[in-house]
Fold:
Amino acid sequence: MPVLEIFTDGACSGNPGAGGWGAVLRYGSVEKELSGGESNTTNNRMELTAVIESLKALKKSCEIIICTDSKYVMDGVLEWMPNWKKNGWKTANKKSPVKNLDLWLELDALLGKYSVKWTWVKGHNGHPENERADELARGEAKKRASEKI
Structure:
């Protein structure tokens, strides 16, 4: 089965504030860049949105490797989400709702369609695709910040 690599990042100018997300999708020698943002958001929402929008852009089934510098997203999917589901999408205390629930639910539904492996990279450490995703995200955040003026 074909393998698609997805490199994602999110950025926020203020938290909350103007935010952006960026992604680089690589399928063999073909690369595609995606980006977007919101005028009032958080860094974690942008990190989640980068992964969600990347998965929504796929047109056919494939194996996926998602490379992110977001421990929030990766730990959320691999460690926290199973318990959140058992707890009715509540945190470990079983009382507080999961933050960013709308995005976690959307991501959960999308992940059910694919075979996904996760890789964490240290951000701002010279990883070319992570740096490019960060550049895209920061550009979108800057654009949203200037629109508010």
Remarks:
- The mean pLDDT is 94.
- The longest strand covers residues 3-14.
- Helices lie at 43-56, 71-86, 101-111, 128-147.
